[in-house]
């Protein structure tokens, strides 16, 4: 045991020097073991952390990892897990596609947060309410603003988090927010507009008025947010020249031929009968025309600007296979666009939308019109905004926008 402990301490020291914090669980007769790798990336007032948990006990169909922060860290957003915080106690629970863990199986997730003072890494965890008693528990000193990861001040055993603390953390968290210009994971980017300092979108975001400008406006709203206190507000007006969008190119540059997008949106007015666009993406393989996402006949739809094809088809049965966008509440919208085969998948609040699925096989009322031509998109930008072609005005707020080469989740 002494030799094993020395080896574990040596390994932990090497990993901590690289910004990785490892806690090993010990298995008892009835206690499942877990190990956790916690990789932080800190700056002056915020941080991200990538976390990998490995199940050392019996196979599970769902999991919840609990820990307690030693400082005043506040989780502001997450990906690939649902992370909730009460006080200093935090619980990260699996999402729909990563709940099953065999013995020795691992799941990875990440989160963003804020802090002041010391940003010490957690040193003890619970797995499904059972303590993972650590062999090692490094603590860290507060990073300087330029430091990419915290430095380690000591390596010492630490007490585990009680199951009572883990269960207490399962209640809903306080208001959350994303930081700007930080990655969800290595292949993803998330932005909650919290780092915008003025009312005009800036940094990675640029206001654009395609073709002409009118009364449509885009601004940073510091009083409304899905998480935190900031969001992007679009005042959408009626009429072709009243369109307005806010553009980012970083989201599409994270992948070469398959793009996943996720955003939260709240709006005040139901989608109209006429065609409207809320998301537009320049397609370099389609004469630089936009792939558009918005609505028509009161339900969500895709529209290809080059030939005006719609997904779903605008028959009554096709529209019924799409979904309206609920008003006056935050909705999570996700979609995938493949440049390899031209397929599209869409989810609203975590549920797949049949009418917004293009699977490459013509289906009447859904995608037979869309497949009239071979389409292999190359997306060059991602634009959020509003364009109403014949009727309808709306006020919309967007928050927690994310993109990458894998599904982000709600």
Helix/strand layout:
Layout: H1 2-17, E1 21-24, E2 34-42, E3 46-55, E4 64-68, E5 74-79, E6 82-86, E7 89-93, E8 106-114, E9 125-127, E10 130-132, E11 138-140, E12 152-155, H2 163-168, E13 182-183, E14 188-191, E15 206-208, E16 217-221, E17 231-236, E18 244-248, H3 250-253, E19 258-267, E20 276-282, E21 290-296, E22 299-304, E23 309-311, H4 316-320, E24 331-338, E25 344-348, E26 351-352, E27 382-388, E28 394-404
Antiparallel strand pairs: 1-2, 2-3, 3-8, 4-7, 4-9, 5-8, 6-7, 9-10, 11-12, 13-14, 14-28, 15-18, 16-17, 17-28, 18-27, 19-24, 19-28, 20-21, 20-27, 21-22, 22-23, 24-25, 25-26
Report on this structure.
A hairpin with a 5-residue loop joins β24 and β25. It is globular, with a radius of gyration of 23 Å. The N terminus is likely disordered. It has two domains: 167 residues, Immunoglobulin-like, CATH 2.60.40; 219 residues, Jelly Rolls. The strands form five sheets. Strands 13, 14, 16, 17, 19, 24, 25, 26 and 28 form a nine-stranded antiparallel β-sheet that branches. The chain contains four helices and 28 strands. The protein has 410 residues and is mostly beta strands. 48% of the residues are buried. It starts with a helix and ends in a 6-residue tail after the last strand.
């Amino acid at each position: 045991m002494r030799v094993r402990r020395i080896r574990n301490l040596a390994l932990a020291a090497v990993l901590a020097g690289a910004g990785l914090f490892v806690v090993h669980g010990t298995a008892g007769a009835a206690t499942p073991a877990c190990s956790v790798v916690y990789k932080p990336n800190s700056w002056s007032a915020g941080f991200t952390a990538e976390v990998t948990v490995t199940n050392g006990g019996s196979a599970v169909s769902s999991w919840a990892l609990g820990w307690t922060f030693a400082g005043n860290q506040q989780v502001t957003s997450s990906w690939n897990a649902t992370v909730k915080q009460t006080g200093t106690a935090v619980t990260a629970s699996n999402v729909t596609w990563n709940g099953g863990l065999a013995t020795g199986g691992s799941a990875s997730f990440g989160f963003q947060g804020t802090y002041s003072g010391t940003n010490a890494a957690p040193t003890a965890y619970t797995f499904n309410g059972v303590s993972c008693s650590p062999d090692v528990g490094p603590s860290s000193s507060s990073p300087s603003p330029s430091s990419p990861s915290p430095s380690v001040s000591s390596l010492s055993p630490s007490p585990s988090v009680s199951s009572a603390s883990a269960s207490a953390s399962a209640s809903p968290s306080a208001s959350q927010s994303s930081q700007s210009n930080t990655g969800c994971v290595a292949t993803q980017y998330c932005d909650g507009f919290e780092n915008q300092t003025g009312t005009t979108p800036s940094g990675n975001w640029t206001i654009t008025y395609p073709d002409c400008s009118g009364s449509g406006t885009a601004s940073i709203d510091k009083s409304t947010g899905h998480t935190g206190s900031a969001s992007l507000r679009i005042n959408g007006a009626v009429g072709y020249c009243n369109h307005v969008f806010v553009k980012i190119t970083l989201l599409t540059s994270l992948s070469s031929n398959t793009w996943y997008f996720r955003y939260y949106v709240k709006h005040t007015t139901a989608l109209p009968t006429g065609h409207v666009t809320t998301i537009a993406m320049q397609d370099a393989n389609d004469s630089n025309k936009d792939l558009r996402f918005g609505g028509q006949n009161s339900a969500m739809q895709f529209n290809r600007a080059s030939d005006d094809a719609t997904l779903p088809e605008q028959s009554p049965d096709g529209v019924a296979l799409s979904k309206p966008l609920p008003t006056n509440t935050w909705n999570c919208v996700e979609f995938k666009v493949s440049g390899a085969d031209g397929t599209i998948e869409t989810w609203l609040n975590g549920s797949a939308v049949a009418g917004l699925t293009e699977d490459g096989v013509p289906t009447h009322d859904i995608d037979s019109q869309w497949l009239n031509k071979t389409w292999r998109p190359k997306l060059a930008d991602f634009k959020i905004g509003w364009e109403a072609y014949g009727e309808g005005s709306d006020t919309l707020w967007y928050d927690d926008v994310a993109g990458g080469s894998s599904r982000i989740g709600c």
